[in-house]
């Protein structure tokens, strides 16, 4: 046997154990000995049944993603499953942890599946721009039915053991020693005798599928694909399982898989999978983490309440402080209401709501923060206010407590300097709604201690956030680049593009919405306040705000929102305002195409990202992509602004930025050295300083 696959015997039951840390990915060095073991055990007369299990924390969590894009080394997963299905004696997959992708497909190659009560099972390939390529699209429907299989495969979301048992995906759920239970299960099955039907020959789930209903559901799911190919291919593959003989459906799945795995979208999404994990790696792996048991949050408004919920959702007790009892009650009531909405939607049980609410302790006394290990302030975005808060925290927080600011823009070094413990100060820039949005920009100030940083990065992942460490500058990474992306928006309006045309160009690119819809959603008054604080103007948006048109919350902004609707409708008065302001400036309107809109918004976005790399505000280009995909809706199929620059052609981006710089003289188009160098070298690494 090999180090990665071993076989033990328990009477007539053979247990094949895979041991390929950390997640038992089906790498080639696992597949080869696994195949050998299965063939040997198939032909071994003394073996009555076979259990496939895994060591470590999880059953096989998928194919080895690092192998994609390289020549396939046989045996591949499909060959292993094909051998599994030639075994007449009962085969049982013993599932714990997360049986995902190729792992679940391996289990579907067995006659039976048993699971630990805490196990989760899923086919998340769609999140990598793929579809299950080991027969999952053809076997899963045969157990759970076509519609449930469609939902699982197109969403990529795993299900728990009990749900899997109810759906017919697993045959038994056990608590305690899974291997012993699995061996006894296998022994009993063997004793009862066969024949044992492979999943490929079963039809429990498919039966007489209502194809019309299936197609209707698939069409609904397709609407959410937003230009991504994988969800569509997933639905097609599951439909093939209904309409085609097994082997034809399997061949069709393979063809669809090969098309996806070689495409830019899957390359982008696989890149993002590793980029997110890379972003969470900071120098000094072996730094001791600080103990974090209780969280303090200052401010129970929208951000503070959301931040408090984010930690409570991760199981942490939270002390929530407000300036008055009334503000505190209002904040706690909002939190209660938010959880009630989740319960009503069915995404949270009443019991879980009760447990989470039980983690909150409200106070108006700073002294009550003395036992907190991490304190996050989410007070008014004003430096004087922040400094006052940190001055008070400095007096009450226990030594070693980490003090975090949720500021979106302000100088974290200046905030840290207002305390006697700058080594304990950093930024935790959550994105609203903080209990939902994945991205967490972790701002490392000049004096932030390495262990404080490492502690919050690990904590962020533990509460389900995607952490990216950023440096101190105005807007850090995301908001600073957002300003670059929006710098030309008003100029485009004054020169003849309408808000709808600009937003349409963004939506056609793959964004969930365009900048004007986004502004109306967030509230135009936020940007207005920021511009006034920095002595900047935006003639159209400022005028709208002066007239009280803040967007959805006032029923009109760049668009009209009739009767509280959230659907944007073109606003004739805005278009008249644009024309009038253009006339005042002597600008004759012209037709502006989508290409120009993208060049004057997304190319400066990439250029600003390159500047951020030059200034070492971000450690890696992929960190910037993680920020933009998880915080601002950059289309995952394009990998983020820096990855997309490679797809678009950095030389083309540089040439067009030079064109606009020559034509307008605007600094937003001045190509930064690293971008120019990238056009030649193809690498974002280091620029000659
Ligand atoms: N292949 C290679 N490396 C993997 C991996 C995989 N499938 N999954 C995880 N890793 C690495 C990861 O990069 C990290 O490395 C370490 O393991 C720990 O991961 C044919 C085509 C299982 C829920 O999509 O969702 O099967 O940073 O930090 O937070 O149809 O890993 O330590 O160097 O994420 O505890 C389908 C992907 C593949 C599952 C655990 N499977 N993995 O989360 O740990 S495609 C997936 C996860 C496929 C077949 C198709 C998570 C996890 P490093 P981690 P975690």
UniProtKB/TrEMBL annotation:
Residues 475-561, 597-682 form the 3-hydroxyacyl-CoA dehydrogenase C-terminal domain. Monomer. Keywords: Fatty acid metabolism, Isomerase, Lipid degradation, Lipid metabolism, Lyase, Multifunctional enzyme, NAD, Oxidoreductase, Peroxisome. GO terms for biological process: fatty acid beta-oxidation. Pathway: Lipid metabolism; fatty acid beta-oxidation. The lineage of its organism: Bacteria, Pseudomonadati, Pseudomonadota, Alphaproteobacteria, Hyphomicrobiales. Its main location: other. Pfam families: 3HCDH (PF00725), 3HCDH_N (PF02737), ECH_1 (PF00378). Belongs to the enoyl-CoA hydratase/isomerase family. In the N-terminal section; belongs to the enoyl-CoA hydratase/isomerase family. This is 3-hydroxyacyl-CoA dehydrogenase. Transmembrane segments: none annotated. It catalyses: a (3S)-3-hydroxyacyl-CoA + NAD(+) = a 3-oxoacyl-CoA + NADH + H(+). It is found in: Peroxisome. Residues 295-471 form the 3-hydroxyacyl-CoA dehydrogenase NAD binding domain. One of its GO terms (molecular function) is (3S)-3-hydroxyacyl-CoA dehydrogenase (NAD+) activity.
């Amino acid at each position: 046997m090999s180090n990665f696959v071993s076989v033990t015997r328990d009477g007539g039951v053979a247990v094949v154990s895979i041991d390929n840390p950390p997640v038992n990915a089906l790498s080639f060095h696992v597949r080869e000995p696994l195949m050998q073991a299965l063939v040997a055990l198939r032909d071994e007369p003394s073996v009555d049944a076979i259990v496939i299990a895994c060591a470590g924390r999880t059953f096989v969590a998928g194919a080895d993603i690092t192998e994609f894009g390289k020549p396939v080394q046989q045996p591949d997963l499909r060959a292993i499953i094909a051998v599994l299905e030639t075994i007449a004696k009962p085969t049982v997959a013993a599932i714990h942890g997360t049986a995902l992708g190729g792992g679940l497909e391996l289990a579907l190659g067995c006659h039976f599946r048993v699971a630990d009560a805490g196990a989760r099972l899923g086919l998340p390939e769609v999140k990598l721009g793929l579809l299950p390529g080991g027969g999952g699209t053809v076997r899963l429907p045969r157990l759970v039915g076509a519609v449930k299989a469609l939902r699982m495969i197109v969403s990529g979301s795993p299900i728990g053991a009990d749900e899997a048992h109810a759906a017919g995906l697993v045959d038994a759920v056990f608590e305690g020693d899974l291997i012993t239970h699995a061996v006894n299960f296998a022994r009993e099955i063997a004793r009862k005798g066969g024949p044992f039907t492979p999943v490929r020959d079963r039809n429990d789930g498919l039966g007489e599928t209502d194809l019309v209903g299936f197609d209707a559901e698939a069409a609904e799911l397709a609407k959410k694909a937003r230009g991504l190919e994988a969800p569509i291919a997933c639905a097609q593959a599951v439909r093939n399982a209904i309409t085609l003989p097994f082997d034809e459906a399997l061949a069709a799945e393979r063809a669809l898989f090969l098309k996806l795995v070689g495409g830019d979208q899957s390359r982008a999404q696989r890149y993002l999978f590793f980029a997110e994990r890379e972003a969470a790696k900071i120098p000094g792996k072996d730094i001791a983490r600080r103990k974090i048991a209780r969280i303090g949050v200052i401010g129970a408004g929208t951000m503070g309440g959301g931040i408090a919920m984010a930690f409570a959702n991760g199981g942490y007790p939270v002390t929530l402080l407000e300036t008055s009892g009334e503000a505190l009650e209002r904040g706690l009531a909002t939190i209660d209401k938010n959880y009630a909405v989740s319960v009503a939607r069915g995404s949270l049980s009443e019991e879980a709501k009760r447990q989470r609410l039980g983690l909150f302790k409200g106070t108006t006394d700073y002294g009550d923060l003395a036992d907190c290990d991490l304190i996050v302030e989410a007070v008014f975005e004003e430096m004087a206010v922040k400094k006052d808060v940190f001055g008070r925290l400095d007096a009450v927080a226990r030594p070693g407590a980490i003090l975090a600011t949720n500021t979106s823009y302000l100088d974290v070094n200046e905030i840290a300097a207002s305390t006697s413990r700058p080594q304990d100060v950093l930024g935790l820039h959550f994105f609203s709604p903080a209990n939902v949005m994945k991205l967490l920009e972790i701002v490392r100030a000049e004096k932030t201690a390495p262990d404080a940083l490492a502690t919050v990065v690990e904590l962020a992942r533990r509460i389900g956030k995607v952490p990216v460490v950023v440096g101190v500058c105005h807007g850090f990474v995301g908001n600073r680049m957002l300003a670059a992306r929006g710098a030309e928006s008003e100029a485009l309006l004054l020169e003849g593009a309408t808000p709808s045309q600009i937003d349409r160009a963004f939506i056609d690119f793959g964004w969930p919405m365009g900048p004007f819809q986004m502004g109306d959603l967030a509230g135009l008054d936020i940007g207005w306040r920021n511009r006034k604080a920095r002595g900047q103007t935006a003639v159209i948006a400022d005028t709208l705000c002066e007239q009280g048109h803040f967007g959805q919350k006032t029923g009109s902004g760049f668009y009209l929102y009739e009767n509280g609707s959230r659907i944007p409708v073109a606003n004739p008065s805005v278009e008249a305002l644009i024309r009038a302001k253009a006339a005042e400036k002597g600008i004759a309107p012209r037709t502006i195409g989508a290409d120009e809109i993208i060049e004057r918004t997304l190319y400066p976005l990439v250029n600003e990202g390159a500047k951020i790399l030059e200034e070492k505000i971000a450690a890696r280009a992929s960190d910037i992509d993680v920020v933009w995909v998880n915080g601002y809706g950059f289309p995952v199929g394009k990998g983020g602004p820096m990855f997309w620059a490679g797809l678009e052609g950095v030389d083309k981006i540089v040439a067009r930025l030079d064109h606009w710089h020559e034509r307008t003289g605007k600094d937003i188009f001045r190509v930064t050295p690293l971008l120019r160098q990238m056009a030649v070298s193809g690498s974002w690494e280091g620029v000659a300083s």
